[in-house]
């Protein structure tokens, strides 16, 4: 089985040295979120993830979830319920939820290391509390007062969990096609009828109640995505006074057999005239849904990061232990029967790729998380708007790139093990199987790419990109006289100009042909992701040098940054070249001729 | 479950239009291997793969192999044994084996479509007959007369299967470390003792005997890879007269639990003083092993191809059926509730990537297979040597690239299904899990890269590359006046010069620093793979235009070639840039500082 130990040094470096979150917290009024509170919290989170969750990871994979057809109940893997109890008792559930709803009121970004650690330790388990945050967010921003009072506190404390019931058999990406009906019933409630699929944590034995947030159509709803409303539908009915009543007419009809995350309950949920309550305005459910979705997308990005981190740790250990062949430049360990494979440039290529993507990805992910706090709490409207623009721009990059890099890193890490990586007992193949879901749910990578290229770049005229490019420019100007940073700052500034030019060229062509957007989207997403990481790697070197971190750590940051600029950033060349060929090579082939 | 129908049109196009194998067969003396024989054989192979093997694929995944600890026996999935009986009765086993040993005496390249179809239909099943070819090859070229008489015929007809027992727990890549001992016994036999792992088809219930080819050390063996000898060790002892005797002291100790190919028996084999016979010269076993290995490497390359083909077929079907959202340039099917996702540029990007890699990869793989025939049967020594050089150059590309592209294509194809791709019932995730082994066994991708860069390019001074570049040059000159090919021939000629220059630059730097080889190897492998495919795509357009294939097929070749040059070939930019940064970014970081 693979091991896991939380990378506390790099997590702290990212929060405190690189992002300097303490300055932000002071400005945002999070007076208690000082290092004296956060540091021990990180230690305790590392203990919980490493000693409670991580040991259950393999059992979750082997046992999976058990569905009982007669009762419609789902039993989670041994140990999952007890771990969940410890999770809620430890107060982890409401870490960054507002204190007024029972949370600890810490900044959102402080919750990100916890999420990362949970994902590294046990991704399948992490899916049970994951969507509670989004459900709570939706209720907080769109629910009525009584709904907040009745449901929100329970979700924040983790006493109940939440779900997002969006997808139906015939529609996932295109929710405008959904068919689930909501009909007015007594007492202002609605009767919900329809089938939802792929419902994460739709049914389980961890909590006495489950709060489903369900998209459905009212009788007078216009067709398409403008006729969708959001409803809260608890597993056990809840009155306006909070009293829990009888079983609601919602039932798990099956659990899916999947490639990975076997310990996560992916449910078919049948609503058969279930009692539900409208959340927000009629027909405006999609907007409320996006409140949930954006939270979830950052969370899924961190799933990719968490798996990549664990994969890297194990590949590194194995590469140091496994003795096989000699270095091409002569034995490095002549006293051993062979050199450890970490002396091989190709093994280092795989390890360094993981390290560069994991640590750079951590900066990207946490920085996006900080924007959640800034967008909500910054002092000026201008600052809040900038943070919101930046968050909108970064969210598809976090979801799209961190998950694809998670797949890539689990791939490389497995490959470092050779044939042993394919065998279940080493645990590497589970990480690879688990990672594979992250590029699919909460919007596929293709959907993230369209969100970045079409909505965030074209429709919003690149507002978030401009903010980010401003950060790049400011950093480059600030470091202009620093000879120790010149090897990074020069290429970064040059590539940033290229990025801007490339974006404008796409926009110009897209004005004449909307297919340009779809044709460029995938490559633009990754081009942008690698550019964002180039910025973070350059800044990481600067932050490490300015920090009190040990010399070996600072050396590692510099050498990994060099690796990143030499070996990863050139991927942008291929993405740029592909973008510049436009839609024709993608669209010319007749549909029928694909297999002529 | 995923479906499969053999792509007979493209297989025939590749064999007859593109490679013009009939001309080669006539020159090589394969008088009977005309189209009148091969065409119906392909039909029958397609029927066998599609109707006998393909339906067992999912059952093999679900059932796996059952190991009985008490008897050490292995039971294969339901239907596997019956399918194997049909396979041998149909004469498929010895298709391209010499007639003097009971084979059909057809060219090696004719067996490649059969292998591809088997791999598409049921990779796990295909692993049972797969290594018999290598075992037979080793005995044919290195065995004594009586060994050939006793074992070879049985392997050729498939009455018995063969294995390659190389890997031990502490050594896979570095066979010089192996510990299995061979001690002289009575009658010129040897007593073999040791443990081998990852032995494909090491034990099963398909045939009454199994012929293990085992690497072991003689008592006087020098240390390292020059002290390894090859032995033939049957499961049931066989006398020099061919009489089958008692059970030999070789026993399956366990079967591995793996990420995929569950239906394939991956065995721990314990040799406890088993009777074995020396094959070839003492201490020269590694050379004999390479005879097996090279055959197996081409075979594993075709595994990647086969899985990619099946994945593409299913993704294409799904992309045509799945209705979701509208084209960005307006509804393409206004009469339907949404457009099929195949109208989306990003879905087409994934499908076309698969199509370009599969069809280009088929040309690459079959062309390499043709070199096996030319190297053995061409009229002049010069021609045989050229074919052998080319085969040596192409083998790591076939193994390395076709398997990595197999992983990539099964990835894209699963992604086309969205969340449904992750669910077992659609069969896409099985293809992805099965594909993952191909980059690991028979030498990881890193080993293929070192073989190409270190041995085939540096040590052999690029002899095979020169032959290939000669083909490219001849084709470009031949097509120089063809305006319809200019869009491909121009870039191909230019990139070929770049390839040559890049190779020479690496060689020059490697003379001063051997680490250059390991640092360049991975990127050079893929740079070369994409260049080889660029050649085949340009030639495919030319061959399609000159053929009597339907217009839609010819259009598809041209548009896919355009896609390839626009969207795939630019990957070489990133590989070239990475190579040019040399070893420093890979080697500078201290081993201990990776997780400082």
UniProtKB/TrEMBL annotation, chains A, B:
Residues 164-272 form the Acyl-CoA oxidase/dehydrogenase middle domain. Residues 284-452 form the Acyl-CoA dehydrogenase/oxidase C-terminal domain. Coiled coil: none annotated. It comes from the Bacteria. Pfam families: Acyl-CoA_dh_1 (PF00441), Acyl-CoA_dh_C (PF12806), Acyl-CoA_dh_M (PF02770), Acyl-CoA_dh_N (PF02771). The keyword Hydrolase does not apply. Its cofactor is FAD. The keyword Oxidoreductase applies. Residues 468-590 form the Acetyl-CoA dehydrogenase-like C-terminal domain. Residues 42-159 form the Acyl-CoA dehydrogenase/oxidase N-terminal domain. Keywords: FAD, Flavoprotein, Oxidoreductase. Belongs to the acyl-CoA dehydrogenase family. This is Acyl-CoA dehydrogenase C-terminal domain-containing protein. It comes from Luteimonas composti. The lineage of its organism: Bacteria, Pseudomonadati, Pseudomonadota, Gammaproteobacteria, Lysobacterales.
């Amino acid at each position: 089985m693979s091991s896991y130990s939380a990378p506390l040094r790099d997590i702290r470096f990212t929060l405190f040295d690189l992002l300097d979150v303490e300055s932000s917290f002071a400005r945002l009024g999070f007076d208690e979120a000082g290092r004296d509170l956060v540091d021990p919290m990180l230690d305790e989170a590392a203990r919980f993830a490493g000693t409670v969750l991580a040991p259950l990871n393999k059992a979750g994979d082997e046992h999976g979830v058990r569905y009982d057809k007669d009762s419609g109940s789902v039993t989670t893997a041994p140990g999952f319920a007890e771990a969940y109890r410890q999770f809620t008792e430890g107060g982890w559930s409401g870490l960054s939820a507002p204190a007024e709803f029972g949370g600890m009121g810490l900044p959102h970004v402080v919750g990100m290391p916890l999420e990362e650690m949970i994902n590294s330790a046990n991704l399948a388990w992490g899916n049970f509390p994951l969507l509670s945050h989004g459900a709570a967010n939706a209720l907080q921003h769109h629910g009525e007062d009584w709904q907040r009072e009745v449901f929100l506190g329970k979700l924040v404390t983790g006493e109940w969990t939440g779900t997002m019931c969006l997808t139906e058999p015939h529609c996932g990406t295109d929710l405008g096609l959904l068919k689930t009906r909501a009909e007015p019933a007594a007492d202002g409630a609605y009767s919900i009828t329809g089938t939802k699929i792929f419902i994460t944590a739709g049914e389980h034995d961890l909590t006495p109640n489950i709060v489903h947030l369900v998209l459905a159509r009212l009788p007078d709803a216009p067709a398409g995505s403008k006729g969708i409303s959001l409803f809260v539908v608890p597993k056990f009915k809840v009155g306006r006074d909070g009293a829990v009543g009888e079983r609601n007419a919602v039932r798990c009809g099956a659990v899916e057999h999947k490639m990975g995350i076997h310990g996560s309950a992916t449910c078919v949920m049948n609503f058969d005239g279930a009692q539900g309550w409208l959340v927000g305005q009629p027909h405006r459910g999609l907007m409320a849904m996006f409140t949930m979705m954006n939270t979830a997308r950052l969370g899924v990005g961190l799933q990719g990061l968490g798996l990549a981190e664990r994969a890297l740790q194990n590949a590194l250990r194995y590469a140091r232990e496994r003795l096989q062949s000699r270095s091409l430049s002569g034995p490095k360990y002549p006293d051993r029967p062979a050199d450890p494979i970490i002396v091989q440039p190709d093994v280092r290529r795989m390890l360094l790729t993981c390290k560069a993507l994991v640590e750079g990805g951590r900066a990207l992910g946490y920085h996006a998380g900080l924007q959640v706090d800034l967008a909500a709490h910054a002092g000026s409207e201008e600052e809040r708007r900038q943070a919101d623009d930046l968050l909108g721009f970064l969210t598809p990059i976090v979801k799209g790139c961190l998950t694809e890099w998670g797949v890539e890193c689990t791939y490389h890490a497995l490959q470092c093990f050779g044939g042993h990586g394919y065998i279940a007992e080493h645990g590497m193949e589970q990480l690879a199987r688990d990672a594979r879901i992250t590029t699919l749910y909460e919007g596929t990578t293709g959907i993230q790419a369209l969100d970045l290229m079409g909505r965030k770049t074209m429709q919003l005229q690149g507002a978030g990109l401009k903010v980010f490019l401003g950060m790049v420019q400011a950093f480059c100007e600030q470091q202009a006289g620093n000879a120790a940073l010149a090897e990074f700052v020069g290429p970064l500034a040059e590539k940033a100009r290229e990025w801007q030019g490339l974006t404008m060229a796409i926009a110009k062509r897209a004005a004449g042909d909307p297919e340009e957007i779809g044709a460029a989207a995938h490559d633009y997403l990754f081009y942008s992701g690698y550019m964002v990481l180039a910025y973070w790697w350059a800044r990481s070197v600067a932050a490490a040098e300015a920090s009190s971190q040990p010399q070996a750590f600072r050396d590692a940051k510099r050498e990994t940054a060099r690796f990143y600029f030499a070996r990863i950033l050139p991927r942008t060349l291929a993405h740029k070249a592909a973008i510049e060929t436009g839609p024709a090579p993608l669209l010319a082939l007749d549909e029928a001729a694909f297999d002529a």
